[in-house]
Amino acid sequence: MAKKFDFKIGKTMGNGAIGRAGVIRTPHGEIQTPAFIAVGTKATVKALAPEQVASLGAQAVLANTYHLYLEPGPEIVKVAGGFAKFMRWRGPTFTDSGGFQVFSLGAAFGKGVSKVARNENDEDDADGRSAKNVHAAPAKIDEDGVTFTSHIDGSTHRFTPERSIQVQRDLGADIIFAFDECTSPHDPYPKQQEALERTNRWAKRSLTEHERGGSGQALFGVVQGGKYRELRESSAKTIGDMDFDGFGIGGSFTKDDIGTAVRWVNAILPADRPRHLLGIGEPLDIFLGVENGVDTFDCVSPTRLGRNGALYTARGRINVWNARYVSVFEPIDKKCDCYTCENFTLAYLSHLFRAQEMLAATLASIHNLRFLVRLAEDIRKSILEDAYERFREDTLSSYYGRSYEQLRA
RNA sequence: GCGUAGGUGGCGGAGUGGUCAAUCGCAACAGACUGUAAAUCUGUCGCCCUAUGGGCUACGAAGGUUCGAAUCCUUCCCUACGCA
Length: 409
What we know:
This protein has helices spanning 50-55, 65-70, 74-80, 83-87, 99-107, 161-171, 189-213, 229-240, 257-266, 283-291, 301-307, 339-343, 346-354, 358-384, 388-400, 404-408, and strands at residues 6-12, 20-26, 29-33, 35-39, 61-64, 93-96, 116-117, 140-141, 146-149, 156-159, 175-177, 218-223, 246-249, 253-254, 275-277, 296-298, 310-313, 316-319.
């Protein structure tokens, strides 16, 4: 009997590295891995029509349970035939469980901590984005679940692992995630441990509810544990022993933790199932993830940065708002194969941003998303051709101006 | 020509004797952004310096009053509107 979902490893890196190139098969198509998944939080990849997302090579879209639950609500999405059909995305889909929002709207609210905190001391150094006029109460976590207030209208809601799975069933993604509790990298060990153990219990409940529902979706368990090796390994063991279709690696990281935590975890997780690194997506992070066994990534950075005028280039990030680009009649990146680079100049983008034209966000998002999607494609190719290390060195030294070894030091 | 209201930093616009190099908005200049409360947020924004302090030049122009003026007085120039 043919399974609707499976994962086949095409090639594993040699020399002790556990990175691999493979194929995830879903009812809505295949994902050639490693792959960068486009984030479409509210059933839309911001500023992009789904045809644009597809044509730039994105293989799958990840939406968010918290957001779609609040608006338009799971009932509407269910009637629409799932979020993919609702947004007219024909490829594979993921939904995040809403667990991250428990963190970002709870413990991390108003703090300078999100997916990657800069250092150990900046927790109180709010990044200035604290929404002054919004007064959402922080989410409250208990053993059974999480009570939170809507950032839209202040109403009170509750998620439990069961509820998250039920909502994700209505949203209808091919791959869904167990409800987890994300922690801050600054949280002390006891708190991390407590959250981790709860996440493990929630994983089991998510799995039970998922099996009960019989939706045919693939359920990924989420590994947590912060920066602590002991916790990460224990989490990987516990989650890895459960009957999940794949795994998500979660958590808010410090820059230094990404490589290490992922390696500890993936050395333990069953190798025959796909691993998704949740919310991570800077170029270096992707290399570190892949060579440590990650198959898929998602990250808001290409679209968010794009909307704000930051653009990826082979030689590093640029800010198209800078005065120097006003009259540069060349593409963002001459070697880029995206629609934006093939048709428009920096001068034009500079103008669109300054004039606050909507097309600015679209063209920049196309470029940035293509950049990361292609990076994953090229990494895959380099693995298949036994040229990973060389590709990594060329790419990183060009992008960061420093070698892989220097970046890791 | 007469009357009225005005002339403030790139622009708009506060301020009407001291705490004003001058609120605020825009523009400009730079920075941040990693499972999206984000087409958002932060900083700078007269000139100079041995720079959490100091100096200089400034509020149409020129004089004047005053310890002290963007703020009061005089003259002039300019702008808008109304009447001729």
